[in-house]
Fold this sequence. Notes:
The complex is a heterodimer.
Chain A: H1 2-18, H2 22-33, H3 38-44, H4 53-90, H5 109-122, E1 127-128, E2 134-136, H6 137-140, E3 165-167, H7 173-182, E4 188-197, E5 209-220, H8 224-239, E6 245-252, E7 255-264, E8 281-290, H9 292-297, E9 305-313, H10 314-322, H11 329-332, H12 335-340
Parallel strand pairs in A: 1-4
Antiparallel strand pairs in A: 2-3, 4-5, 5-9, 6-7, 7-8, 8-9
Helix pairs in contact in A: 1-4, 2-4, 5-10
Chain B: E1 2-4, H1 5-8, H2 19-29, E2 32-38, E3 46-57, E4 60-69, E5 74-79, E6 89-93, E7 98-99, E8 103-104, E9 108-110, E10 113-115, E11 118-119, H3 153-156, E12 162-167, H4 178-189, E13 202-206, E14 212-215, E15 223-230, H5 239-247, H6 255-267, E16 271-275, H7 276-279, E17 283-288, E18 294-296, E19 302-304, E20 310-313, E21 318-321, E22 325-326, E23 339-345, H8 348-358, H9 363-370, H10 377-392, E24 395-398, E25 401-404, E26 411-416, H11 417-424, H12 430-440, E27 443-447, E28 450-455, H13 465-476, H14 497-512, E29 515-516, E30 522-523, H15 525-528, H16 534-537, E31 544-545, E32 556-557, H17 562-573, E33 580-590, E34 601-611, H18 628-642, E35 646-650, E36 656-666, E37 669-677, H19 679-684, E38 690-696, H20 697-703, E39 719-728, H21 733-744, E40 748-757, E41 766-775, H22 784-802, E42 805-806
Parallel strand pairs in B: 13-24, 14-17, 29-33
Antiparallel strand pairs in B: 1-12, 2-12, 3-4, 3-6, 4-5, 6-11, 7-8, 9-10, 15-23, 15-24, 15-25, 16-23, 17-20, 18-19, 20-21, 21-22, 26-28, 27-28, 30-32, 31-32, 33-34, 34-38, 35-36, 36-37, 37-38, 39-41, 39-42, 40-41
Helix pairs in contact in B: 4-12, 5-6, 6-10, 8-9, 12-13, 21-22
Amino acid sequence: MKEQLEAIQSEALEKIDGTNNVKELQEIKVAYLGKKGSLTGVLRGMGKLSKEERPVVGEIANKVREAITDALEQKSEILEQEAMEKQLEAEAIDITLPGRQVKVGGPHLLTSIVEEIEDLFIGMGFEVREGPEVETDYYNFEALNLPKGHPARDMQDTFYLTNELLMRTHTSPVQARTMREFDGGKPVRMICPGKVYRRDTDDATHSHQFTQIEGLFVDENVRMSDLKGILDTFAKKMFGQERKIRLRPSYFPFTEPSVEMDISCKVCGGDGCSVCKGSGWIEILGAGMVHPNVLEMAGYDPEKYSGFAFGMGTERIAMLKYGVNDIRQFYTNDIRFLKQYHNA
Amino acid sequence: MLVSLNWLKNYVDIGMISPEELAEKITKSGIEVDGIEYIAEKSENVVVGYVESCEKHPNADKLNLCQVDVGDDKLQIICGAPNIAQGQKVAVAKPGAVLPGNFKIKKVKLRGVESNGMICSLKELGVEEKYVPKDAVDGIFVFPDNVTIGGNVEALLNLNDAVLEFDLTPNRADALSMHGVAYEVAAILNQPIQLPEEAVEVSDEDANSYVSVEVEDKDLNPYYGAFIIKDLEIKPSPLWMCNYLMAAGIRPINNVVDITNYVLLEYGQPLHAFDYDRLQSEKIVVRRAKQGETLVTLDDQERTLSEDHLVITNGLEPVALAGVMGGAGTEVNETTTTVLLEAAYFVSSAVRKTVKDTGLRSESSTRFEKGIDPNRVKKAGLRACQLLQQYAGGKVLANTVEFDELDRSEKVVEINTTEINKRLGTEITIAEIIDILNKLRFNFEQNNEDFTVYAPTRRGDITIFEDMLEEVARIYGYDNLPYTLPVGASQAGALTERQQLKRDIKNYLQGTGLMETITYSLTNEKNIGKLISPEVQENNPEPIALAMPMTEDHKYLRLSLLPELLGTLGYNQARNQSNLAYYELGPIYITHEKTLTKQPDESLRLAGALSGTWTEQPWQQEKKEVDFYLTKGILEGLFDFLQIPVLFKQAKLPDMHPGRCATLTLHDEVIGFIGQLHPILEKNMDLKETFVFDVNMEKVFAAYSNESTYSQIPKYPSIARDIAFILDEEVLAGDVKATIEETGAPLVKKVDIFDVYQGENAPDGKKSIAYSLLYQHPEKTLKDDEIEESFNEIIETVNSKYGAYVRS
């Protein structure tokens, strides 16, 4: 019987080794281990054996069964793996074909810049204020130390709706409105982005509508050196740490002293080139110490409070930062233009 | 203001500093120098030549053959200028000279005859044609007789000058004069200043016997001075004066006119010369014009005047518009021998009104408008008399006939060293302040750290402490201010809820594939009434127009964002960019007043416009065009994100496709609309098929609440049931859905439409819509019979309401 068993084992193992498909393997399993299989048949004959022989043959039989089972499992695993490999190979795709892109839009470049500047000043404790685009003559001019007939009104050609109502020419009225709202009672730290309008003919450098960002800081003991410090922080964050700023005296009716701020030219680093017209500097914004008349008209005591204000053109910042050369691009909304900056 | 450096050097020593360096210093101290112009690039080897003979060229009719003495040599030169003649002194470019434009002069042969140089016009020497005296425009420039043969033309014609172009702010009217510029430059360079003395020798005759002066409106004209100069000889001005005028951008005319212009530039004081004989009166009366009175001005235009305008009259009729322009009838011309010279102070408001009404703006009016120095009015008149005596042979009569109620006092400003340092953040010493005031040539009294400053009248802009603060700071140097940060208590900055929400909405829209745009708020007549949302239109808004639009394209304040937004779509489509998905967030401007008396309501809207293909890379996908449901889905997603219950209701609106349009309603109130544009509008606007939406964001913000409360995640299983109804074509899927939701509440948690079929397999006039219902109870597992009962009730209700039956 022992020989019989060993023969079955070697025969089965040979067959297992020889097959290469799952179905045959299954048939082999049935042929040896199945209810009518040869090993089962042999084992069935165990009853006829003597008491002494039975455990010995039983042990051999178990070993044979184990060997066949192991071989079947091993082979099965190999075959399954081969089958899977084959299937995966068949499933291969051309990964160079384009993906199904999710359509993504984006912000307008001016919005990106405004939000960047908003966040920068929010980080310095400023709040963001808004104001009406249709303004009264009072808030747009008079409250800013520009009484009727003031020669500096010529600096800004105004779209009037009536004698008293106009399209705001700057975001500065929001200064006056905010201070008036606070009623001289507390410090002000605000910036105000918004649309403004001038009576200009649209061309590469002029637009009858554009965007300004205004800033106002009023408190006790505010110094002009604080303005310089804040503007320097702003310029470096906005344009790069290597940039230098320069303040020049200027004139705005609502600030005294008034300044223009230049930053060192990025292209030439200050040596002078065609971008900065040889000066090494590029004009960025206007600023100054809030004029005592403006503080007083808004209910702030100029003996107690002082402050600074600044205002910049968003389009100008965008043009300098991204090299846009025609201001009309911001309003024609050419998709090819918008897409260039949708992650700005 | 154009500032000739050669002219400036007469008053202040600028040393060896280059024009560029000087411009930089001036800019940093407060006057922006916009540009530097060199009159001519180096014109070497150009000398004065004497034309000894001038004959016709043997082989050319229009050319002349000249023998020219250039001092150290005699040159044969061929010249084509029509005004060349024997005996003239002219500018000769010798061989080897290089003229502006890198034009090299060489020996040449012209029609067989040798020419050894060129006789030059001013234009060829680099002078801009508009400044060239009229008689020298079409030919060569002829020097006066007194120049030396062989002399250096560069110096004689001021060609080596550099001109700084000042971009003056309105407060710095003082720099509208060479004297003012001299004070500024002297302060910056810390140099002394040398101004001319107004020394006039007067004749025995008294000007008072020639003219009297009467001023009716002394508020507008507090000083009027009249000088009489007799026996004048009208001729060209001296060369140096012509040169300076040309450098300053003024064309020389004759000595009398040039001298008034020269003094205007030198002192910043406008002057006017009347031909005394043509005045036909011995009287000057300054008054307001009478309504409808007329005057023909120097430019030969007849001006109709009103009481707003100040005029100079001869007692009978106007002879000049005060401070703006003289009259043609009393103009100085070649026959003039006696002049009445006016030096007056007109207040800026009087002149501004005349300028505004007549559109006449001149060097004179600009200075009056910005304010002149009361202490230099008469001095300027005397200076002009001096020059008329010197260069026009005039006899200046004794006495100035004047009306004088002019305030010439200096403004007193108190400053204090501590206060200055407190405001600037500096540590400027008392000595430094003294030094700064001295550089500025301001008079002051000092008592320790307190100063009483007497601001000179040329600096009318200085009236208060802060003005002096700026003066001190700018001379001290803005570069020398330290960098500090404010010391006050810090506070947290943040966006308001509304500002944050605006950003969130933009981010959502951009995430769905829309591109943000910004369009103009001002639109045209054709667009103003278009695509106004029904809830805006319902209240009959009045269009708001600009009083003086720049163009018809931008005349009205928009009542809808859509027309301008659609304009941008058209712009792109015309450039073959057809796949567009745009949105804009911005205000419209609403009023109900016919005549605006108060600010309109600025109401924030969200508008979108989509056109073309949505899926752009269709190699394995169906190419998807933008359609109504895509557009609607974007809005549904937005309202879902904001958690506000907006409903879409079928509607017919002007300019919209009648079958593809809906209003948006929130709590039974219309807050906008969505749909496809009407094909006629698309055609008129040259647009491809376009879908739009417009939402009232004020209403959206009002309905929004950011207070989310926690609700239990359901523990019990949900059960899905599907059902398909056969419905009449006209029945709306949404209505049926609403009925299912209503009937199934509260067990039915969610109803989705998953199939809509209309066609061959549906009966005529019918369609099939399949709904998927989700049942769920918060506290228990639903039993089959509970669901069955609800399901049957739904079928019955839908059947009775819409005549629908269940598709088997």
